[in-house]
User: Fold these one by one.
Assistant:
Number 1:
Amino acid sequence: MDHEKRKQLHIFFFPFMIQGHIIPVLDMAKLFASRGVKTSFVTTPANAALFSKSVESMKSEGHNSDILIINFPVKEAGLPDGFESFDSAETREMSRKSFLATSFLAQPLDQLLEEHRPSCIVADMLFPWATGVASKHGIPRLVFHGTCCFSVCATECVRVYEPHRTLSSDDDVFVIPGLPGEIRLKRKQLPVFMRLGSEFCKFYGEIKKSELESFGVLVNSFYELEQVYVDYYRDGLGRKAWHIGPLALCHNDIESKANRGKEASIDKNKCLEWLNSKKPISVVYVCFGSLANFESSQLLEIARALEDSKQYFIWVVKRERSGEDTEDWLPEGYEIRNEGKGLIIRGWSPQLMILEHEAVGAFVTHCGWNSTLEAITVGVPMVTWPVAAEQFYNEKLVTEVLRIGVPVGAQKWARRVGDSIKKEAIEKAVTRTMTGQEGDEMRNRARKFGETAKRAVKEGGSSYTDLSAFIEELKQISNLR
Ligand SMILES: O=c1ccn([C@@H]2O[C@H](COP(=O)(O)OP(=O)(O)O[C@H]3O[C@H](CO)[C@@H](O)[C@H](O)[C@H]3O)[C@@H](O)[C@H]2O)c(=O)[nH]1
């Protein structure tokens, strides 16, 4: 084992337990494996079962990859048995407990590091204690935020300068101090914990401290996309970062794209057949990631907007809604009336496969970073509908910096979306993105970014080179050269 370790780098990948973090981290593991690194994916039993096929497929490609399981500390955290995924937190209290509970994972992680002695650990930003655990074993800890550099910088500038503190109302607008580009936001678009201050603010401070003490940050983005902000992050804020994305580009074939993440709720061939029957740039794809919750009244507005728009559509509605007895979010006879025009996926869609299809002309998205980057990579412009987390920042990047999206008009950060956006606004934003000169211009810009993204991950490209530089540095400090 010692001999093997000296020859091969070994990296632990330890994501926060939600789809939006697990999926890109598994892609990252696949990317490192393709460069000859031994990879171990660390997670809890239910998540291991959900994602074991990704690790199995890495193994079948001849990579040295495995899953290491640690138990989620439900008892210590006062959470119900079987709780393992943060998206299943039903109440704010559960959500609070589950965030704070992660510190109980330090001890089992410590044991795994003792047992396996990897070269380094890539741990989620939401595990600030991981830096200390790694340092105890003399190994570097890398941070993974899940989002882009623009939003990491914006969050940091708001945290440090607190521009919202001097405003008198939630509707007041402020410019993010220090951040290049005069980015304006309303106070109510900031996360609740930032606006009101809470236990999570303190936790966020710990996150930032541990990031500063860590070896650096691995980012799922590419230099050319947000050059000004990458430079600001590295030179202005003085952080060490490697931009190695888009990570989703590690999936080359349709099978691998369709199988990424959870099992899709639609047969991939049926989905492809449906898309193949449509002309290029005629379909709007609507999906709000894995966490966003919409009230029935808001879903009804979406349903009506899609029905009245002149576009074909694929609309993904999370299973929690669709599994309810009454489908009160869908107008009577909707699917029969819209047969052939619209495809509703109840549950999980094969998003990568759908987005890259030539029939897809626009993406209505909540601006989760994975979804945003996936759209950019395949040159699809967006209708931006941020809901929570850092999504209001991502929207600014898409609509104002990159100019490849139209805002639907979301005004307020919320865990659950009421009927705030009316049918007319949705329809208008979709039409602007799908048609006319404005739509064409956004599409052309998006396609250029997509081409640059693909070049970035090829040999000699910016992400490829950053990844090589990181691996070399890691080899040096691990005495593997
Ligand atoms: O039906 C679905 C729904 C989602 N996805 C995939 O799931 C991922 C979802 O990630 P993302 O778009 O980032 O959304 P969230 O699940 O909401 O992600 C959380 O994590 C992200 C990364 O940190 C943050 O940017 C978001 O704000 C946060 O909500 C993407 O890869 C999608 O392709 C599917 O394949 N099918």
Number 2:
Amino acid sequence: MADTRLVVAGASGRMGQTLIRLIAETPGVVLSGAIERPGAPAVGQDSGKVAGLEPNGVLITDDPLSLLTAAEGIIDFTAPSATVELAALAAQMRIVHVIGTTGLSKEDFARLKAASRHAVIVQSGNMSLGVNLLAAVVKRVARSLDEDFDIEILEMHHNRKVDAPSGTALLLGQAAADGRGIDLDGHSDRVRDGHTGAREKGHIGFATLRGGTVVGEHTVIFASEGERIEFAHKAESRVIFAKGALKAAIWGFGRKPGYYSMADVLGLAEL
Ligand SMILES: NC(=O)C1=CN([C@@H]2O[C@H](COP(=O)(O)OP(=O)(O)OC[C@H]3O[C@@H](n4cnc5c(N)ncnc54)[C@H](OP(=O)(O)O)[C@@H]3O)[C@@H](O)[C@H]2O)C=CC1
Ligand SMILES: O=C(O)C1=N[C@H](C(=O)O)C[C@H](O)C1
């Protein structure tokens, strides 16, 4: 059987390079294209070389259309505006679109959902097995604990990260809200500054730290009078996200169009 052809978007970025290295060492898949932002310095360069490998002959381009016509899937860790555009193209080509990009707005999500009527989209704020397992645990624990337990989510990332709270923090917040049976938007404290008043009972709080080269750390805290339960995940390498994304792409082939999550890919949706 021929290797499955994958395009990597954001090819010269931190995740793009990690994916190109992982695809190169994974049997059954092949890098068929590499995309960057129009005008990016990496356009025209060999994607293997950019990722620190031997040249692979796949030049980075800023023209996704021709690449997507000749691919079975695209893995996309870029920026919200790019992801929304790529989703429309991937839907046109009926190929699998794996989306790791975070910082998506409500409008962006609506456009991704629309695109998923024609193509398989797998989207997650965190593609790692560990975080998705943690989300299932958080949902279960939140179901058992009442509002006497304040839920707080603390995250830390490297100093190049541009969005907050992280996609993972929001995913974990959603898991907690689902477990508790509440709407996250109506029960979130995403920023605290100045004289805020006492903590609102039943709300889910988010706190953001940025610094150095931290790959990604998340702690979900259930705090009550006299006791505190904490669940933490620490990412030590971006390879865990790339592995999850590649698994999602392979899982998506041949599936019917729709909007899927990593919980679907990993069989955790029922937990
Ligand atoms: N879901 C998950 O498991 C994970 C999600 N992420 C998310 O993935 C995204 C990328 O992260 P990271 O790799 O660290 O970021 P980087 O900034 O290192 O990489 C993003 C790349 O995408 C490029 N890009 C921007 N616009 C376009 C476009 N129109 N077409 C093609 N490429 C484009 C950027 O180019 P330029 O710099 O020139 O703008 C950059 O090279 C972030 O949203 C991050 O939060 C990250 C890790 C795991
Ligand atoms: O930007 C990052 O680096 C990461 N982004 C994702 C997020 O927003 O949660 C996943 C991971 O934590 C790394």
